[in-house]
Every structure is written in structure tokens, then in C-alpha cells.
């Protein structure tokens, strides 16, 4: 009964906050971290919450993304590892598209280690990070600015992207289905991402392990459309098999 009550309170806190850390739950219930991890694993297996490194989050909707402020703190360490791996595969003096997303926000910081980049982006956070570098050329798309995350979308954004042919498209995504479909939540954002992929010589997809199996409504493409997948943990067997069949490269930025 004590465990059941604790589970109910954990779910209430997760659903109220969107995400809770193990440390928060240890302090709230006066139990050991091992007990909290065991509780979270049980609730994850029951599909009542999503288990993440260092905590847990609410089960996501397939029609609405998690708030930007919550996404900023989720898998922060994993995103940094992925970002460093992506930056290591981008040469100096390359031309890039970079789309919307907190992983790409982190990648932008890692790209400060490069020189002479030319960047076209619809992400205000990326532009703010890379813009001050005197040896970088940063072009920001026009269009409608989404107040929640600083993303720029719309027909004007598409028109600009289609004027370029770049070396690399650095693409973030909200979910990767088991059949390799790349999924996101905003139709207008997806159209811009598709245009970036179509107008780049190589497509680098950056997605942490929580994106595998995550549901969203809008189809952006498939893993067959990318050249390299950067992640922080080995993908599920079905996705690994698909990538091997399609002869796509996998880079796992393990801790």
C-alpha cells in the first residue's frame, strides 16, 4: 500500500510538472535513489510515464509537443554528447542548414569549434549563438516566428531555403517510429525541414534515445532520407536493422 500510494503521488507530480528528477523524488518521499529508480521502472513498464536518464516525464501526446522549456532540460547531457559528435563531422568552411529544436540549439554551441561556416537557419537560438562569430556567415529565414521556441516557419521560410544548395542539413526530429518514419508535430515546420533535406548534399539527423518510438502526427520522411544518424544509445533492433539494410551510417555518442 505504501508503494502504491507513492506511485500515485509520483504520477501526480509528473503529470503536473511534465518532468521530475530522481533527486526531487528522493527528497519528496524520503527514500533511496534505488527505490525511486525501481518505482520509475515499474511505472514505465506499465506505460504510465516515460523513463529518462535522471528522472521521468509524462507520456507525450501525438498531437502536441512538450513545452520548449521542458525540452531544454530533458536529456541535456545526452544532447551535448550528440552535439560534439555532429560538430566533429562538420568540416571547417562548410555550408549548413540547421532547423528547429533543442538538440540543434546545443549543436550550435558545439559548432563554435569550427571555422568559416556558412549557416542558413530558421532557428533564432541558433542564429543568436553563431551570429556573433566574425568568420561565420549566418542567414536567418524570414517568416512567422513561433513564440514558444523561436522557430521560424511559413512560405517565406520555404522560399529562402529553396534558394540554396548546401553541404549539410543538420536536422532534429520529435520522433522516430519503429518502421523508420521521422515524425514531428507542426506541418509548417516539417515542410521547411523537408526542403532543407532536399537541398543538402548530406543529411545529418540528431536524435537522442527518447525519440525512438515516440509518436507524433506529421510525417517528415524516413531514415532512408538521411545519411547519418547521431544518437546517444544504440537504437532498437528494428531501427538498427533498417539502417543496416539502407546502408545508413550510425554514430552513437556514448557516455
CATH topology of the largest domain: Rossmann fold
Give the number of helices: 10
How many strands? 15
- CATH architecture label name of the largest domain: 3-Layer(aba) Sandwich
Average pLDDT, to the nearest integer?
90
Portion in helices: 25-40%
Element string (H = helix, E = strand):
HEHHEEHHEHEHEEEHEEEHEEEHE
CATH class of the largest domain: Alpha Beta
Structural class: alpha/beta
Strand order of the largest sheet: 6-5-4-9-12-14-15
Taking the sheet with the most strands, its summary is: 7 strands, parallel
Choose one word for the global shape: globular
* Radius of gyration, CA atoms, in whole angstroms: 19 Å
Structure explained in plain terms:
The protein has 255 residues and is α/β, with parallel strands linked by helices. It has 2 domains: 2-59, Winged helix-like DNA-binding domain superfamily/Winged helix DNA-binding domain (Arc Repressor Mutant, subunit A), CATH 1.10.10.10; 71-252, Rossmann fold (3-Layer(aba) Sandwich), CATH 3.40.50. The chain contains 10 helices and 15 strands. It has helices at 2-17, 22-29, 33-45, 68-73, 76-88, 102-110, 124-130, 155-161, 187-198, 237-246, and strands at 19-21, 50-52, 55-57, 95-98, 118-121, 137-140, 144-145, 152-153, 166-172, 175-176, 181-184, 200-206, 218-222, 228-231, 249-252. Strands 6-5-4-9-12-14-15 form a 7-stranded parallel β-sheet, sandwiched between helices. The chain has a 3-stranded antiparallel β-sheet with strand order 1-3-2. It has a 3-stranded antiparallel β-sheet with strand order 10-11-13. The radius of gyration is 19 Å and the shape is globular. The two termini are 37 Å apart. The mean pLDDT is 90.
Amino acid at each position: 500500500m505504501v508503494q502504491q500510494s507513492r506511485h500515485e503521488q509520483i504520477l501526480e507530480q509528473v503529470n503536473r510538472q511534465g518532468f521530475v528528477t530522481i533527486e526531487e523524488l528522493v527528497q519528496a518521499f524520503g527514500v533511496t535513489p534505488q527505490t525511486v529508480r525501481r518505482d520509475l521502472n515499474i511505472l514505465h513498464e506499465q506505460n504510465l510515464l516515460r523513463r529518462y536518464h535522471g528522472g521521468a516525464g509524462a507520456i507525450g501526446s501525438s498531437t502536441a509537443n512538450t513545452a520548449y522549456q521542458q525540452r531544454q532540460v530533458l536529456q541535456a547531457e545526452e544532447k551535448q554528447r550528440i552535439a560534439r559528435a555532429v560538430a566533429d563531422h562538420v568540416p571547417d568552411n562548410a555550408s549548413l542548414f540547421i532547423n528547429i529544436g533543442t538538440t540543434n540549439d546545443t549543436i550550435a554551441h558545439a559548432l563554435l569549434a569550427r571555422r568559416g561556416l556558412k549557416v542558413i537557419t530558421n532557428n533564432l537560438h541558433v542564429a543568436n549563438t553563431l551570429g556573433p562569430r566574425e568568420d561565420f556567415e549566418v542567414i536567418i529565414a524570414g517568416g512567422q516566428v513561433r513564440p514558444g521556441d523561436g522557430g521560424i516557419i511559413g512560405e517565406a521560410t520555404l522560399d529562402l531555403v529553396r534558394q540554396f544548395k548546401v553541404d549539410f542539413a543538420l536536422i532534429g526530429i520529435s520522433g522516430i517510429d519503429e518502421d523508420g518514419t521521422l515524425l514531428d508535430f507542426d506541418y509548417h515546420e516539417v515542410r521547411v525541414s523537408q526542403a532543407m533535406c532536399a537541398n543538402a548534399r548530406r543529411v545529418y539527423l540528431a536524435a537522442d534515445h527518447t525519440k525512438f518510438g515516440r509518436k507524433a502526427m506529421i510525417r517528415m520522411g524516413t531514415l532512408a532520407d538521411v545519411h547519418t544518424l547521431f544518437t546517444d544509445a544504440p537504437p532498437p533492433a528494428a531501427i538498427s536493422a533498417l539502417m543496416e539494410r539502407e546502408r545508413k551510417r550510425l554514430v552513437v555518442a556514448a557516455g
